[in-house]
Design goal:
Five copies of one chain form a homopentamer. With 322 residues, chain A is an alpha+beta fold. Chain A has nine helices and seven strands. Chains A, B, C, D, E: It is a multi-pass membrane protein.
């Protein structure tokens, strides 16, 4: 499945040749080669690493998952780690992409096949005229695709936050717990995005700062564009965190409000029920109270119950306790 | 509806000519042209973009809503995105305004017709003598109008926050939930302003920093003035967030206070009601207690009920539980 | 009421002359003039502004209240806005003071007559020998007075915070709501101070940074001294915010504690009252239980009530629930 | 009680001479003099200030308590304010120490005699060979002693925080309120330390940055050492604030937990008590229910009470509500 | 137990020789020596310190535990303090490691034997070819091992946080208190890691910044690698704090939800129980109500009880209160 490409003077010359043919092309400075490795073993990487003179530390990082977006500069090449995102059935997955870039070669190492490298190839072909910018252009399209992926996730999270906001002032308690669970989960997703997606900003910013050392001047606006997107990712996720915080505080306030409401209802009904209890208690005494054992006692007792209950009910209703 | 203007040597020479006449004026360096496009299609922009040599990335950003105030510098022009605000029936809308500024042309692209470009034109005409500063002056009046719009929204939010503060220590519970909902909504508005209005500060600050590269020295104080306003927007919205936080914390404290209050009332009334219940329970026993079946039992029972109830009521009232 | 002064070579030469005499003195570089305007109209400022060559933007800011401490530098003069504070009957007012300073003139524009300019004059006269430093000295005394005013307000707020701390662990619930209201109000005052008093720091710091461009070297320590005071204002108000936060969290904890306490009391008393209710209920049954209709029933019932109640009461007391 | 010392060529030559002898020694550049003043009046400082040429603003600051650690640089001398700490009976006191340092003189002004200057003298004598570094060395030992004092206070606060943590999950409610009060008090102490002890860091850092302008190169590591201690003070107090926050949040959670727990207990017992009440209520009716007035009624009623009570008790115990 | 090593030209030449033989090797610039001291006394360090010319302040810091990761630069050597971590039975221990590094010597001082220095030796031997980089290489392996230790602890904390998240929405209340205790404890661990493990970042970063002054260029990527790990430690622990905060807020929400839930249940059952109480109270009156003393009274009473109870039960169930 590993993919390869060879560009010469900005034109795609060969594609899909075996990685073992690396040596033929690497020495040729007029050519730009690309190799893609999907979850490679140490042995897989050994050959390319030797041909391209990759630093053993970078190679080791590419094999072992290491969970931090970064840009390392070695004498003969750059080493980049970024994280692509994938939302599958509400689970947020991060796929580590390690990249080696030399003057005329780009090596991409994907942690798993779940990252859709074909989409990157489609982007390359859609702007084939830009292939003249060489490896930095290939890298640009890859980073652009990854950052677009972060956006898609943020869009889903944003929609979720809006749903939570809509549910917030509903009075159904089943929904309440659901809202809490979703709020918790949304916050968690944002924490993870902040750790693995947002720092892509520093990686791109740092590529941009090197400017013409590593890329043609005509590419700068394109990298600036990706950089803008990473800034937006950062601002957007910060903004969403703030909204989630807003939801949480509103939840706490809501619960306090509801508790007070319930307490008032309990109090009201307890008072209303206390009326007949008190009166029948009185008429249940074994002492000759007025009306003891006489029909008039029954009528008075019943009248007191009915009237007392109604009066209390109205009083509470007036104070909005019921 | 698209508006156009042509200034020559600081004097308005033509206005309302078709956008297709662009080419005639663009080459003329003694003239300053302005074009306004309202939610244009790709095709609409294509011509101008070609005439003025606008970068395709900037053109694409102008067409697609992209939600981030920014200033991009291209070789031959600046590209600015800012957001105008509109409060309609308590809904806060943002209208994206994209701006291209070359040496002698200003192109404004409005996302929707809800942004009142006529007001900007009125401002231009009110200070017609400043038209001698060219495109940067036109830009200034536009930014000034947009920032004034942010102020108007903040003023409304500020009034709202004061209302919330006034309602806070009212004891009416219906208002309580209303206050919570409004607090939530106000916080949300502030989060959005922080994301789309406050960063206008960086855009203006960045224009100011370039100084004489892009504008006449005499314009500097005017840009400084807009910059001051954007700083005030930032400080004001920060201050409002703080006040909303203050309101929220006070709400939580208030609810705690009220809950305690209600609990004390419940306890007091339950205790008061327990007195007759206990006594009539005693006199309801089928055992020959003192006064069983005798009038004296009735009088003692009734006396105990009345005295006990009054004593308890007074005791609770003294402790402020009722 | 508008005040004026003319210093020549560090000596007060004239005072109280009409503002219309401005032109006579302004051209004289050996003299330093001061004009004070209290809530002037546009017309009032027009003359001075023309004589001193003030920038129209600055003049406009001086007339319209604009709510932001700042220092603007124009070609021929500095424009400063600061806010004096006044606590009247627990209401915190801010009075905008706009200042124009040229090489040899100082113009102060007060928003209202509530700012006591006479106290500033007293300070000038108390250190008459420093008048040799010209306009920057006059400005120094004014800023010093304003910052001292901020201190007085902070001292009052500090005392208030200490009162709140003392009241915090009192058990009287009426005080509780009072404490909440005061806490809310104190926080609000601090937010406003932070917005309008604390940024005086940047204004003074910025004057200090220009150093010998605008003031004699001998004045530097005096400006440094005011700057130290503004730093202290900032630190103090930050510290007070922290203490208010501490009070608020303690309040929440206290309320939680009290609610638990009340719940325990309710539970205890409910349990104690349940004892006689249960027993008299038993003895009220119309079935021949042991002692039914016999004196022994009464004695047993009464004994059970007394003993049960006492035992429960002691048990709860031991667990500190009562 | 005021102490004085005269070092010549790093050797202590005289000590305890009257402050009035200042003039003899100050002019002698081969000597280093030290004067200590404890809560001096303006007059006390006047002479020294004249001899050493101290700036009147610094002298004024030394007399009036001013609550801010700082380092001011004047032409001929440095002026330093720092705060020594003292914990007496759980009260945290701060003692202001003002210091003037010229090339060959050190003047220390203590706000009160509670700061133990003798301990500083002991430190000087313990490292007598370092006296060759002159006034900066004397200053170093003083600052070192003051920062050590901050450490002692932090150690006590740290112990207190650990006690609070240990008490946190105890179930005794009296302790609960105690814990809250202590938490509040600890937070308050940390706020004050942050304001008056932590900024000593900036004072020492600023001395260090001037380096060889004011001190011999051999002293640098010693100042670096004090600086490290001030950094540790800052980090430690920050860490303690964090732990206090942790305790507070745990308290809130704990109270919520306990409240739920109490509510469950109340509910359970109320339900259990409701069983006999309901049954005896039934058997108390004046209608010929099965067993009315017959021994079988008594047995059935009693059996229902006992069985019902036991069943409910077990059910609640199983659900952990009791 | 103290270990020693002597490398010459990158080759291990001697090992385990007595520390007293130091002098023989220290003068030899072609050799690199390593000494390890485990909780040494002042006397133990005196000799080495004299031979290598270590600064007395650094030596003192190495002996006294001082609780702050730092890098001090002295004329002839670097002094480093870092903290190794150890999790034993859920207790987080920190072991202070002090390091002196001169051009050709490395001295490690361990606070306790619990830090496994043998593992560091194993690392040295595993990459024996790198010994040619001298003392900085030895230091690298040591720091790498310590930072790996921090990772292991963070991994355990991370697992713990996931467990807490899983338990969060369980309804078992025993677990609730357990979750609270664990949350508290996890937060505490993170605070301590932040204070003693995270600042290792500054130490390594500062070594890296000195670059070729202290290490061979070939070592830079290796130090960069450790630095990346320390950055990850910082980001990871920050991220975990955030997740713990998320858990805490969810707990508060959950408790509020459960309290409301319990209150509804209590209310419902109290209402249901009130039905028979009220009815049997009525039929227990000693007045001739319809059915008094007649079988029909019994049937009506019983019917009312059964129907009333069922109706209420269904009503509450429909509203989700049961």
């Amino acid at each position: 499945m590993d993919r390869t490409r060879l560009y010469r003077n900005g034109v795609l010359e060969a594609e899909g040749f075996p990685i073992d043919d690396v040596s033929e092309h690497v020495g040729d400075t007029s050519a730009v080669v690309w190799f893609d490795l999907c979850s490679p073993t140490q042995a897989d990487l050994a050959k390319i690493s030797e041909e391209l003179g990759l630093h053993p530390l970078a190679v080791e990082d590419a094999i072992h998952s290491q969970q931090r977006p970064k840009l390392d500069t070695y004498d003969s090449h750059l080493f980049i780690t970024v994280y692509a995102t994938r939302l599958a059935e509400d689970e947020l997955d991060f796929i580590e992409i390690s990249i080696f870039m030399t003057r005329n070669a780009l090596v991409t190492v994907r942690e798993s096949s779940e990252f859709d490298i074909d989409e990157v190839i489609r982007r390359w072909d859609a702007n084939a005229d830009m292939a003249k910018f060489g490896a930095p252009y290939l890298l640009h399209a890859l980073l652009d695709h990854i950052v677009d992926g972060h956006f898609e996730v943020l869009q889903v999270v944003d929609d979720r936050v809006e749903e939570l906001e809509d549910d917030l002032f509903q009075n159904n308690s089943r929904d309440m717990q659901h809202v809490q669970r979703r709020t918790f989960d949304t916050h968690k997703k944002l924490v993870r995005l902040r750790r693995l997606a947002v720092p892509t900003r520093e990686v791109v910013g740092s590529l941009l700062r090197r400017g013409e050392d590593i890329m043609d001047r005509g590419l700068t606006p394109y990298y600036q564009d990706v950089y803008d997107h990473t800034l937006r990712t950062a601002e957007w996720s910060e903004s969403l965190r703030d909204l989630v915080g807003n939801i949480r505080e509103a939840q706490v306030n809501q619960q306090g409000f509801r508790l007070n409401d319930i307490m008032k209802k309990i109090t009201s009904w307890a008072a209303i029920i206390a009326v007949p209890t008190m009166i029948t208690g009185f008429y249940g005494q074994n002492v000759p109270y007025p009306g003891f054992g006489q029909p008039v006692g029954f009528w008075v007792s019943t009248a007191l119950i009915v009237v007392g209950t109604i009066l209390l009910y109205r009083a509470f209703q007036k104070r909005n306790w019921l």
